[in-house]
């Protein structure tokens, strides 16, 4: 008989990540007593279909009986990897109320119901850990909550979706258009058959809500995040970005300025000299700016079976250690402030504009006049040679309040000499 206590674990979901977690725990079985001071054993795996074969998971641990898990007094940790809001929300709440600790990777749930879940964990003095919800295998939740706790964080920004980063990398390096890059991402398994959550920025928006809540100690939900995707980005936009010395990335940016938060996800042009400009393919990276640490960058695989399993198992080990020293719940909800969101129209940014205009005298002066009358000054401008009586005018503005830029865009839409406002893309600038 082993001299070590056995901690029994239930795993909800046996998909790609769930399978990776089971395999990784088994791979580390011999080391667990030294890492944790106890043995860790996944004794039940909740699935919908008991007849389906699960590679690497013995059939005897599979179950479709949630009640059997929640009422099993020997199971002290529940790992939720089902995804979606329900029944995951109900299961996690029931597990916490039953005195079980919880590890989850469910960004959708946390971005909508994080406060409710954290309050349930605190009420029951249980751990609720979710490192894998943001950035896959990249450690970022625990660093923000613990390692950087001595800082006032004023900005968290980065690439937090591997699918869109792969697509934009191919468009940049190969000159592909969006549709071709998406098809290749789907062929390789980086993109789902329905890629909406990724390419429309929804996945990244949920992750930024979680990061902002932790970084600024004030609750941010998904509805607070201004989200734009990459479906309208063209190879031409990327080429012009290069000409101006920029690289185009889908960035999540959360800022806290004078007690007002601004959280958004959108395609942005970032200086090609910035470290994030060279984070390519399916990699993710997060930049954090604090008053003491200055800049810190976290980079790695943002998704996949074992990168995500790495974060889940890291949380599992942390919870087991807390159990050994009877200190579960020691790091709970960090949202002790109630900051306001900055109105979207008051945000100040630089913008890249690509206009399709008639090739005639006075066009540039007319465009500059409209921008100037609306408080928008021009930083850089390029006019491309006309083809068949139509030219392209490419402008980068100075910093401007978004509402003033929107006013100018409305006027452009009514001007016959401007055929189309083809692109309006934010240019990233440091605070």
Contiguous runs where pLDDT drops below 50 for at least 5 residues = none
* Number of helical regions: 14
Average of pLDDT: 94
What is the correct CATH architecture of the largest domain?
2-Layer Sandwich
Q: Going by CATH, what is the homologous superfamily of the largest domain?
A: Dihydrodipicolinate Reductase, domain 2
Assign a percent range to the helix content: 25-40%
CATH topology of the largest domain: Dihydrodipicolinate Reductase, domain 2
| Major sheet characteristics | 12 strands, mixed
Strand content: 25-35%
Q: What's the CATH class label of the largest domain? A: Alpha Beta
**Radius of gyration based on Cα positions:** 24 Å
Structural class: alpha/beta
Gap between N and C termini: 60 Å
> How many strands appear in the DSSP assignment?
18
Gross morphology is: elongated
Count of structural domains: 3
GO molecular function: homoserine dehydrogenase activity; metal ion binding; NADP binding
Domain ACT: 352-431
Binding site for NADPH: 107
Binding site for L-homoserine: 192
């Amino acid at each position: 008989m082993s001299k070590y206590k056995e901690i029994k674990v239930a795993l909800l979901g046996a998909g790609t990540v769930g399978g990776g977690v089971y395999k990784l725990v088994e791979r580390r079985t011999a080391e667990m007593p030294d890492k944790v001071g106890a043995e860790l054993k996944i004794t039940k795996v909740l699935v919908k279909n008991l007849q389906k074969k699960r590679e690497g998971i013995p059939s005897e641990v599979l179950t479709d009986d949630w009640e059997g898990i929640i009422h099993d007094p020997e199971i002290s940790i529940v790992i939720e990897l089902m995804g979606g809001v329900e029944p995951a929300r109900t299961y996690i709440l029931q597990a916490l109320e039953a005195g079980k600790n919880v590890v989850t990777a469910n960004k959708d749930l946390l971005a909508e119901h994080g406060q409710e879940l954290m309050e349930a964990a605190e009420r029951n003095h249980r751990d609720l850990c979710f490192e894998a919800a943001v950035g896959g295998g990249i450690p970022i939740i625990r660093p923000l909550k613990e390692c950087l706790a001595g800082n006032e964080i004023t900005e968290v920004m980065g690439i937090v979706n591997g699918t869109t980063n792969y697509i934009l990398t191919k468009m940049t390096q190969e000159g592909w258009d969006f549709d071709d890059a998406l098809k290749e991402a789907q062929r390789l398994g980086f993109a789902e058959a329905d890629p909406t959550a990724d390419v429309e920025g929804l996945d990244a928006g949920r992750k930024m809500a979680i990061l902002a809540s932790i970084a600024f100690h004030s609750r941010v939900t998904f509805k607070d995040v201004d989200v734009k995707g990459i479906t309208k980005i063209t190879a031409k936009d990327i080429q012009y970005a290069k000409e101006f010395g920029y690289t185009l990335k889908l960035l999540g940016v959360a800022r806290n300025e004078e007690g007002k938060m601004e959280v958004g996800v959108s395609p942005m042009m970032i200086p090609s000299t910035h470290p994030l400009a060279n984070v390519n393919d399916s990699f993710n990276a997060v930049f954090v700016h604090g008053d003491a640490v200055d800049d810190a960058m976290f980079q790695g695989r943002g998704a996949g079976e074992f990168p995500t399993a790495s974060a889940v198992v890291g949380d599992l080990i942390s919870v087991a250690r807390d159990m050994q020293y009877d200190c579960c719940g020691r790091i709970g909800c960090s949202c002790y402030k109630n900051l306001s969101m900055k109105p979207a129209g008051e945000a100040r940014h630089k913008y890249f504009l690509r206009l399709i205009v008639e090739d005639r005298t006075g066009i540039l002066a007319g465009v500059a006049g409209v921008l100037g009358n609306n408080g928008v000054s021009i930083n850089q401008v390029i006019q491309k040679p006309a083809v068949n009586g139509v030219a392209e005018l490419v402008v980068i503005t100075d910093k401007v309040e978004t509402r003033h830029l929107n006013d100018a865009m409305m006027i452009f839409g009514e001007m016959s000499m401007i055929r189309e406002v083809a692109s309006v893309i934010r240019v990233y600038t440091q605070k």
